[in-house]
Structure formats: C-alpha cells, structure tokens
Amino acid sequence: xxxxCFGGTNYEIPNKTTLTTDGHLLVTAYTYSSNGDVPGxxxxxDGWIFEVGMSGALEWSKTFGSPSFDNFNAVLETNTNYLVVxxxxxxxxxxxxxxxxxxxxxxxxxxxxxxxxIFDIVATNQGDYIFSGTTRSNDTLHFSWDAWIxxxxxxxxxxxxxxxxxxxxxx
Length: 171
Hints:
By secondary structure, the protein is mainly beta.
C-alpha cells in the first residue's frame, strides 16, 4: 500500500477515482493551484485530471479550463481514449476527449448553457454512451435544477435525452 498527496499550494477538490484497465488510477477534480503537481491554471478553477501508477507515482497531470470555474467530475476509459466529463465556465455540460497519455484531442459542450453539468458517463453494449447530469436549461419557467439523462452516439452527439423534475430543485 502507499499514500501520497497530490496538488499545489492552493486547494484541490477530487470528485472521482477510476481504475484503468492497466491498473492505474485516474482522478478527476478541480483545482485552484498552478504549481506543484498542477501544471497550470487558466483562471479561477480548472478541471484537473491526473494518473497515478500502481506504485503511487504521478504518471501525468493535466488541467483544462477558462478564466472562470471549470470542473471534471468523472472519466470513462474507452479502447482508444478517455472521455472526461464535467462542467465549464460557459454553463455547459462538458466532455473532453484525451488520449491515453492525457493529451487533449477534442471537446464538446452540451446543453443550453444554463448551469448544465455532466456528472458521470458509461458505455453501452451498442457502442453509445449515456451520461447523467443536471440542467436548468429545461425549466425556463422556474429556473430550477432538473436531472438530465442523455444517450450520445460515438461522435458524442445527443441521440435522445430526458429531463426529470418539477418546479423545485432535483439535484
């Protein structure tokens, strides 16, 4: 067993730890730091993902974001890459695609930009993806939080989506 601290001189908030097929750990988080194990910061808080090897050593660390608040909630390992989900400063549900070394490949913002966030993502046996999240974009009358479930195709386009909730917050 091992124990290590990762981060910088400000604070980091980890959201989820995922075991990869090669036995490493991927940690999704957000960070306010721009030093130590954190490679940089674009502004206030950035989405942060890092990989820890079987011995506890930091393999790589990446941040992505804008001058405002960005967050990574979870990651899904596919055969060729990682799909990292969260929320970005522009109020959208955020999917960032990384290669297996953590290098940026693409990003997609989903929703209408009213505090939308993606909290988790899974793969289906048919090759699609399903995510769960929250949105305020669906409830223009009450502007309350609703649960948001969507099915994505392999290009991360929404095939179908459902919203669950009423006039109060469902979070």
